[in-house]
């Protein structure tokens, strides 16, 4: 039986932390659907299509690239999981505050759909401080992004913030 998992997030932008989690998850699952949350209430830097393209470019050439599907969704993640017939959600946990939030979300999702389980993964300890919001802040002020995101993402952020 093929094991498929959803890796949901806004990915605004994708970071080395996200890529590390994909690498880790590729050893646990046969297929991973990176699900880009397109949320109208957030002020995103990139459109859903731009985020999708940046993810594709950022994982190009990775040994597990062929097992990744990328899709966009609106609404409840658990509804999307049911639509895709997926039983596993991948969530990254960098620090205790992440765990508290993710734990509540996992219990909520379990209440809504008991057959869907959440798998928590921790990134490499050198990446635990990286978040998309920090990356956007560094990019806004013209800082060096080389240790946070792939070059293609850094260039896209530079173009966004120099307009």
Layout of helices and strands, plus pairs?
Elements: E1 4-9, H1 16-25, E2 31-37, H2 48-59, E3 68-73, H3 77-84, E4 88-92, H4 96-112, E5 117-121, H5 132-140, H6 151-161
Parallel strand pairs: 1-2, 1-4, 2-3, 4-5
Relevant terms:
Rossmann fold; 163 residues; alpha/beta; 41% helix; 18% strand
CATH level 1 name: Alpha Beta
Low-confidence stretches: none
Please give the largest β-sheet.
Answer: 5 strands, parallel
CATH topology call: Rossmann fold
Tally of individual helices: 6
Arithmetic mean of pLDDT: 94
Query: Could you tell me the strand content as a percent range?
Result: 15-25%
Question: How many runs of DSSP E, i.e. beta strands?
Answer: 5
Structural class: alpha/beta
Instruction: Give the tally of structural domains.
Output: 1
Q: Which geometry do the CA atoms define? A: globular
Spatial order of strands in the largest sheet: 3-2-1-4-5
What is the rounded distance between the termini? 49 Å
CATH H-tier superfamily: HUPs
- Rg calculated over all Cα atoms: 15 Å
Explain the overall architecture.
Strands 3-2-1-4-5 form a five-stranded parallel β-sheet, sandwiched between helices. The chain is α/β, with parallel strands linked by helices and 163 residues long. The chain has helices spanning 16-25, 48-59, 77-84, 96-112, 132-140, 151-161, and strands at residues 4-9, 31-37, 68-73, 88-92, 117-121. The termini are far apart.
């Amino acid at each position: 039986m093929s094991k498929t998992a959803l890796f949901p997030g806004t990915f605004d932008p994708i970071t080395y932390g996200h890529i590390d989690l994909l690498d880790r998850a590729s050893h646990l699952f046969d297929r991973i659907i990176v699900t880009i949350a397109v949320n109208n209430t957030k002020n995103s830097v990139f459109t859903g299509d731009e985020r999708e393209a940046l993810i594709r470019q950022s994982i190009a050439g990775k040994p597990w690239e062929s097992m990744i599907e990328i899709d966009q969704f609106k609404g409840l993640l658990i509804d999307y999981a049911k639509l895709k017939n997926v039983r596993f959600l991948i969530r990254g946990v960098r620090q205790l505050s992440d765990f508290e939030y993710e734990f509540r979300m996992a219990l909520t999702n379990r209440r809504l759909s008991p057959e869907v389980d959440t798998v928590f993964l921790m990134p490499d300890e050198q990446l635990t401080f990286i978040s998309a919001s920090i990356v956007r802040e560094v990019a806004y002020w013209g800082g060096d992004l080389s240790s946070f995101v792939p070059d293609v993402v850094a260039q896209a952020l530079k173009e966004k913030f120099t307009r």
